[in-house]
Every structure is written in C-alpha cells, then in structure tokens.
Amino acid sequence: MTTNSPPILFLVNPNTPPINIRTNNPPTPYHINLFELNLGFDTHKLYNITFDSNHTVQTLLTSSPDHADCWFIDTRILTVDANFPIIGLHIEWGPNTPATIHLCVNNICLVYQVIHAPYVCPSLSVYLSNPGYRFVGVGIKAGIEKLRSDYGVHVANFVDLRSVAAEKLHDRELLRSTGIKMLAERVLGKVIEKPVSVAMSRWDSPWLNDDQVKYATLDAYAAFEIGRRLYTNLV
Question: Transmembrane region positions (predicted)?
Fold first, then answer.
C-alpha cells in the first residue's frame, strides 16, 4: 500500500540549549494561532500551531494506522540520540472509552483518533510500551488503564507530573488534585484557558474541529514542556 507520509517540519533546532523563561511575573495566557496545511487528503490533516508567536508545533490529526506509523518512525529518528526521551501524553474520552491520544515530542504532535481507527496500530503498542521512553502527563491514570483494557495498549513508563513537581518545587500540596493548568502556571508561568465548550465537546467526533485540535495540541505540548523543565531543573 502506498501512503502519503505527512511531512515533518523541524522548526526547533534540537541542539539549541533549552532556555528557562519562567519569571516571578504573574502567569500569562497562551496566545494560540492555528494554520491548517490544506493537503486535500481524507486520511489525515496537518496543522502548524503557534504559541505566543515564538514557538510552532506541527500537529498530525489522523485515525489512520498508516499515518500514525509514519509519525512514530519520525519521532524515533528525532529522539534516537536522546537519553530517556520525554514525551508529553494526554488522553481525551468518548462516552465510555478513550477517544483520542495526544503525544508531543519537541515540536511535533500526534492527535490519534484511536476510537475511529480500523484496528489497533501495532506501532502505537510498540511505542507506548517502550521502557526507554518517559511518558509524562497529569491525571490520566484512568485513561491509561482503559487504553489497556479497551485497546490492549500498554504504557510501560508513565510519570504523573504532579509527583515530580511536588519533589522539585518542594510543595506537597501539588499532589492534591492539581491539574495541568496549575502546573503550567507554576512551572511555565503560563495560563491554560481551555473553554468549557471545548473541554466538554465530543472528542469521539469523526473529525475534530480547529478548537479541539488547538487544545489537544496544547495539553500534550504543555505536558512535554513541564516535564522537560522539571527533569532538567529549569524551574
């Protein structure tokens, strides 16, 4: 089968040292701009999503196992020299089961509509079960358990960022029902303003709308960036 592999734009130089931009100033909201690359395919969509005019993430939206395979191959190449790479992970639910899996590495993101996939992507299982990867997120233990029971997909090495933040920031209160919004304010100095209309929307829709794609990307990107800063002591 011939597939149209979505291009990957390397918009961030992986050799550039990360910069800690957190200050003591009050947290500020993310300003998010979305641009869809009109590829004309019915199997996937590709977006450039820019945060605060200075950081662009390329997001692949798909339910196609073939195109998810391409993303997993590209990210393995991107992280081949990384020691225990950090991968942001977020899950959104349908009525009774995980509907979308959001993954972010550096400046590329996958929003995989697993609920509409014709079969469980083998590369997804291999990727998530790799013990050499550190998947980071906030409050998604139930989603991970349902991925295993409903789809047979096992996440081998998941870290809830609340425990890492509590240790790094010497604040045990962060273990108490803190969400990614609070961690973003504490670690990144950013406010995640996710409208209720998006948070409560139908994540099991055949195609996500632009607002869903924006915030799906933001959730995964914020998890990645919080994890990166905590693990590299940039807090």
Answer: none
Residue 65 lies in a domain: yes
Residues 6 or more apart whose CB falls under 8 angstroms from that of 139 comprise 160, 162, 179, 180
Tell me the two tokens of residue 104.
């972010």
* 40 assigned to some structural domain: yes
Q: 11 lies in a domain? A: no
Tell me how many domains the chain contains.
1
For residues 115-140, average pLDDT: 95
From CA 231, how far away is CA 113, in angstroms rounded? 29
CATH number of the domain within which 195 lies? 3.30.420.10
pTM of the model: 0.88
